[in-house]
Amino acid sequence: MSTTPESASAGQSQSLRGLLLLLATIAGISVANIYYNQPLLDDFRKTFPSGAAWIGAVPAATQLGYAAGMLLLAPLGDRFDRRRIILMQIGLLCIALLAATFAPSLPVLIGASLAIGILSTIAQQAVPFSAELAPPEGRGHAVGTVMSGLLLGILLARTAAGFVGQYFGWRAVFGASIVALLALAFVIVKKLPKSQPTSKLGYGKLIGSMWHLVVELRGLREASATGACLFAAFSLFWPVLTLLLAGEPFHLGPQVAGLFGIVGAAGALAAPWAGRSADKRGPRAVITLSIALIAIAFVIFAFSGKSLIGLVIGVVVLDVGVQAAQISNQSRIYALRPEARSRVNTVFMVCYFIGGATGSAVGAATWHAFGWIGVCVAGLCFSALAAWIHFATRERLDASAQAL
């Protein structure tokens, strides 16, 4: 029996869908490791009472490690087979998690957490891999699918860690992650194809070439700056939410603030939609809508300082806006230099996290100086800065086109 072009196309589409779901799972399970320790801090304090003042170094080391891993490991996807890199990182990550599981002291746990952060950047191989596998007209949808897995991993990590930690102890959380990663590695060996390296540069030149990409690619600079501003707006909100809920009129603990993260699932569900919209209407149109949604969210927050319902609505709008913007920006940058997708992704994500750190600092300072309304105004200012960058760049592009 001969295979018709239609059935062959359907088979290829189904195969691609399966690979994208696998990459989404890889992204979610790997990135979850940098969030497992956050609900376990009090358990760490009880286990290591003599180092109680340094407990906060555990999540800080993990985040610092993740930033370093993005800069030092993520670009390797352009030079080597991404499948091989993912498997190697999983193996090393399991060793780091094993060290955390049996950590005899707080310094050992902090060191293991730094390694966990560095090696959990597997997600930064999975996202560019999806862009490589998908056809150009479906790149946005592919990136959105994998990003939805990453977002669900972030959202569910704290809940899973809290549950396992409560009933089995904090060491079991890291042990369970090892089991999940080993099972994932088995599936990767069976199902994930090899990628095609696109660069022959040595490691030093590969890292150095990222600066040249920043200088040469205006679209990368714009996407990175816009993304940093919007993630700053996002990041200034979440730490302050806990402080808001703890005071008048709510008097609610951090557990309730954590439940707001479940509401953020709206952002994960919106990820594939944002990718398809970027494919159909172009990423710039989706980014314009995203900036508007984020600004609207902070207007809602400004009027919801005493309303849980208003805060929930605002969180949904904020998460949808931020995730749609990120996916659209990534869809844009992957098209700029197909042979350097890992490096352009590294530039974007490093700027993204710098924006997040800036937002967190601004949020804390603004809360203490000006209260909730000040935080909302700061969020609007970051949104306005993103809009200015976005539209000023479009005007320059239009002017260039008219000159030609």
From TrEMBL:
It comes from Paraburkholderia bannensis. PROSITE patterns: MFS. Keywords: Membrane, Transmembrane, Transmembrane helix. GO terms for molecular function: transmembrane transporter activity. This is Putative MFS family arabinose efflux permease. InterPro entries: MFS, MFS_dom, MFS_trans_sf. Residues 16-396 form the Major facilitator superfamily (MFS) profile domain. The chain crosses the membrane at residues 19-36, 51-73, 85-103, 109-130, 142-161, 167-189, 228-246, 252-273, 285-302, 308-325, 346-364, 370-391. It comes from the Bacteria. The keyword Transmembrane helix applies.
